[in-house]
Structures
1.
Amino acid sequence: MFFLQKEKDLVNKIDKEKLPQHIGIIMDGNGRWAQRRGMPRVYGHRAGVNSVKEVIKSCGELEIKYLTLYAFSTENWKRPKEEVNFLMDLLVEYLSKEVDELNKNNVVINFIGDISVLPDKCKIEIERAQEVTKNNSGLVVNIALNYGGRDEIVKAVKKICTKVLNKELSVEDITEQTISENLHTKNQPDPDLIIRTSGEKRLSNFLLWQSAYSELWFTNVLWPDFRKKHLVEAILYYQTRKRRFGGI
Ligand code: FPP
């Protein structure tokens, strides 16, 4: 009860006029969370799903428009095969259990990253989730899966070069907007706020182009312990920042 009141007090401090439109989260620290409990790393990934659920629900309540969650990077394939398989199975389980509820809550599920190389069981659930929720008008949740910012930029460059070779675009007409429009996040605002848990202070190939002017918020909290109050703390921090976008 006391905690709930404290959380409400924090939420009441949020200036609704200055909400970040797009929040990105690097969900880090699942492995350490599990190891501290003497459990295998994958136990932390499973616990991390509860944080995913809470953050999506909270962003909906706070009327945030876009949330991007970094679930699996292009570099995460270097992990032991069992851990990679576990993460893929966890995603399939999460989607098959949660899509109907997410749909009821008007959430749009969107995947960013190279989905084409994922196991078929993942692709089937991903396509179903995107199809079922595509006409919703609420929070857009981008799940970054087999995602890398550099890979995304390389793919954008290739698409642009193809248009130039096909004479659909001239080199002189290439602008920053051309790059943005050829990324997975096309038509979405850049993230205003990026959160990273677990005490690490780096972007690790997350939304490299889009994060040019993002505010960054780091916390020592490990991802499985991340709750609504931490999200609200990050938003309150964001609202203290003066965003100048290179101006004065
Ligand atoms: C980083 O912690 C976490 C990941 C690479 C996976 C994130 C996945 C989830 C939170 C669960 C599934 C997601 C969805 C969207 C259903 P780490 O393993 O690198 O932790 P460590 O730094 O302590 O080793």
2.
Amino acid sequence: MEKREELYRGKAKSVYKTDDADRLVLLFRNDTSAFDGKRIEQLDRKGMVNNKFNAFIMQKLEQAGVPTQFDRLLGDNECLVKKLDMIPVECVVRNYAAGSLVKRLGVEEGKKLEPSTFELFLKNDAMGDPFINESHVVAFGWGTAEQLATMKQLSLKVNEVLSKLFDDAGLLLVDFKLEFGVFHGQIVLGDEFSPDGCRLWDKETRKKMDKDRFRQGLGGVIEAYEEVAQRLGVPL
Ligand code: ADP
Ligand code: UDP
């Protein structure tokens, strides 16, 4: 496999073509952004930790029957993935109220949500990733009703698998964001799963162990990511 030119530079990752039309290289950088890219800082070791964390989680999901983009790790900061046609929609599953839900509905942070909720946001930084519903996705042609049904079913399956995995490590999976794409006609989980895109609280103390430490200026961001990785047994 040969790495070729940069295809896209996102806020946290760079995406490269390869000599295989079906494969891309994802490079995890140390850039850490919040508030739709309005605040960006470099955090030492973040690229490496998220790359290895993501590889570990994607492999667990694949074993549980969720089709993922993951092919293999290439080094500390890079992995090889399937090249997906991304659906520009973020799927958010919540088990406890936090973040934008608390702001939008004025509910108490930490309230247990039963059943877990499933939300959609348009992936568009300039518009601040607006909240959308299923009919918008179909009406604007971002995805079909069938693709949406699969994305929802897979998101809830991911929640089932990972809630258990994190629970066993003494962590609550509060909420998370997933992105899907199409690979040879099949809906496949893309992008990344790392503490940048989910909320994890210590089960006993409710200490925040995710990107909220960065968003809220709590400090110890990477130390918390590393502790989560260590509790899960992710080799760093
Ligand atoms: P952003 O675009 O939100 O700033 P990143 O910095 O994480 O995000 O950039 C990674 C980009 O690569 C995202 O736009 C994401 O949708 C896209 N992407 C992730 N995985 C794949 C994949 N397997 N195939 C094609 N594109 C992908
Ligand atoms: N999230 C993300 N990228 C986004 C927006 C949200 O990874 O562009 C994640 C976020 O880390 C959290 C979940 O999705 O785990 C729900 O986020 P929320 O809607 O509460 O938004 P926030 O106020 O955190 O931006």
